[in-house]
């Protein structure tokens, strides 16, 4: 899947559907790669689901780069995309290119993702014409949640659907090799996908996009059962329960001294143990020797 950028698969019901996971650390990326996921995205969802921040606006480019580099170490066989966080690309195309270069040079990612539509066209062109592939992101763009009035479905009126299409086309024409469509009604996502030459990666956008993405921590059920979860997330695992049960069993076995068991212990030479005891009997005060 490393040559993904050149594939540019247009949506058709017969086209292969690509699968992406947003992953934030080395062990998670190892599992994603072992499962054969096409694309590993180091998303800025990192902020909320892995770093416990209130929203994605808090995470910095420095933090993203550290996590990207960890993921890259595990993901040698997958195509990797690093998200540019809020504040690292909006000021000017030059600022965006500098951030994209850091994501490639230091984060060891193969492409970058940034949020926004027509207003980002010049920026996307600057980055792609410098040789760094860009994945666009339109529809619900969480970095702009306050301007959008929260995490809401996008493209659900004629005016908003047309604006979504124009944004996606502008991002494509600026040189993006694929576009994330987030929180868009399925029929609208399908029409937009069919109107584009580049693949779309849907999240909360139905099953007619060219591919899908989910955040790994969400889809594996790693977060507490009462954590907010968008409607589109399907849980394919229950890591919370299995981890909780594992930690509870560890506690019980430590308390009862069932752990460590003989197979976890290092053996000593009985002569060494006896010599140590003899030394204590001979040279230490009785109260010390007893303790
Ligand atoms: O930050 C992220 O993980 C993302 C995906 C969910 C598309 O942007």
Strand content: 5-15%
Strand order of the largest sheet: 1-2-3-4-5-6-7-8
Helix content: 40-55%
Dominant shape = elongated
Topology diagram in text:
Layout lengths: L3 H4 L10 E5 L3 H9 L4 E4 L3 H5 L10 H14 L4 E5 L9 H13 L5 E3 L7 H8 L5 E6 L5 H4 L9 H16 L4 E5 L3 H10 L4 E4 L7 E5 H4 L19 H17 L14 H14 L2 H5 L1
Helix pairs in contact: 2-4, 5-6
The structure holds 3-methyl-2-oxobutanoic acid.
Short description:
This protein is of the alpha/beta class and 291 residues long. Helices cover 42% and strands 13% of the residues. The protein has an 8-stranded parallel beta barrel, surrounded by 5 helices.
Give a description of the structure.
- It is a single chain.
- The protein has helices at 4-7, 26-34, 46-50, 61-74, 93-105, 121-128, 145-148, 158-173, 186-195, 216-219, 239-255, 270-283, 286-290; strands at residues 18-22, 39-42, 79-83, 111-113, 134-139, 178-182, 200-203, 211-215.
- The chain is α/β, with parallel strands linked by helices.
- It has an eight-stranded parallel barrel, surrounded by five helices.
- Strand 1, helix 2 (26-34) and strand 2 (39-42) form a beta-alpha-beta unit.
- Helix 2 (26-34) packs across helix 4 (61-74) and helix 5 (93-105) crosses helix 6.
- It starts with a helix and ends with a helix.
- The protein binds 3-methyl-2-oxobutanoic acid (KIV).
């Amino acid at each position: 899947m490393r040559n993904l950028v050149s594939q540019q698969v247009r949506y058709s019901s017969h086209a292969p559907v690509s699968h992406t996971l947003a992953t934030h650390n080395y062990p998670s990326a190892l599992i994603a790669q072992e499962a054969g996921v096409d694309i590993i995205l180091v998303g800025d969802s990192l902020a909320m689901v892995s770093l416990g921040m209130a929203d994605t606006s808090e995470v910095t480019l420095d933090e993203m780069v550290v996590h990207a580099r960890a993921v890259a170490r595990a993901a040698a066989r997958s195509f990797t995309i690093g998200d540019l966080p809020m504040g690292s690309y909006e000021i000017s195309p030059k600022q965006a290119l500098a951030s994209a270069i850091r994501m490639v040079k230091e984060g060891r990612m193969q492409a970058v993702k940034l949020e926004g539509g027509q207003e980002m066209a010049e920026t996307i062109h600057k980055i792609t014409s410098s040789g760094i592939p860009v994945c666009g992101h339109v529809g619900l763009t969480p970095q702009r949640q306050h301007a959008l009035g929260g995490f809401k479905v996008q493209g659900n009126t004629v005016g908003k659907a047309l604006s979504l299409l124009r944004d996606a086309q502008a991002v494509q024409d600026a040189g993006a090799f694929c576009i994330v469509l987030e929180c868009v009604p399925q029929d609208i996502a399908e029409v937009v996908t069919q109107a584009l030459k580049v693949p779309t990666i849907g999240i909360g956008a139905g099953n007619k996009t060219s591919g899908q993405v989910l955040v790994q921590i969400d889809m594996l059920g790693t977060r507490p059962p009462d954590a907010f979860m968008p409607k589109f997330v399907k849980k394919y695992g229950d890591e919370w329960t299995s981890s909780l049960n594992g930690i509870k069993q560890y506690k019980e076995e430590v308390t009862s001294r069932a752990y460590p068991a003989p197979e976890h212990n290092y053996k000593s030479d009985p002569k060494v143990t006896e010599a140590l005891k003899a030394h204590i009997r001979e040279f230490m005060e009785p109260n010390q020797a007893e303790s």
